[in-house]
C-alpha cells in the first residue's frame, strides 16, 4: 500500500493496488483534514472510465456528506 502514495498524489491500479475499501479510507481521512480534493482517473484499454469516475465521485461525495452530518 505504501507504493500508492507519492509526494503530491496517490496512484494505483484499481483492483490491484487500490480497491474500494482503500479509496473510501483515503477519502475519509482527506475530508477530516478538510482538504481540497482533485480527482483524476486514467484508464487503459477498454475499461469504462465514465462509470469508474462517477463511482469514485459518488464515494467521495458520500463520505463528505457523512462527515458534515
Descriptive account of the structure:
- There is one protein chain.
- The longest helix is centred in the C-terminal third of the chain and has 20 residues, at 49-68.
- Helix 1 (20-32) crosses helix 2.
- The chain is globular.
- The protein has one domain (2-68).
- The chain has helices at residues 20-32, 49-68.
- The protein is built from two helices and no strands.
- The chain has 69 residues and is mostly helical.
List keywords for this structure.
69 residues; 2 helices; mainly alpha; 0% strand
The oligomeric status of these chains comes to single chain
Backbone structural class: mainly alpha
Radius of gyration: 12 Å
Q: What percentage of amino acids are in beta strands?
A: under 5%
The span between the termini is 30 Å
* H/E element sequence: HH
Tally of separate domains? 1
- Tell me the total number of β-strands: 0
The amount of helix comes to 40-55%
How would you describe the shape? globular
Count of alpha/pi helices: 2
Low-confidence stretches: none
Q: Please outline the major beta sheet.
A: none
Amino acid at each position: 500500500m505504501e507504493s500508492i502514495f507519492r509526494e503530491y498524489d496517490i496512484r494505483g491500479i484499481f483492483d490491484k493496488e487500490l480497491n474500494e475499501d482503500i479509496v473510501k479510507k483515503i477519502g475519509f481521512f482527506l475530508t477530516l483534514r478538510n482538504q481540497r480534493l482533485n480527482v483524476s482517473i486514467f484508464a487503459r484499454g477498454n475499461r469504462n472510465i465514465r462509470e469508474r469516475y462517477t463511482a469514485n465521485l459518488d464515494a467521495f461525495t458520500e463520505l463528505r456528506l457523512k462527515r458534515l452530518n
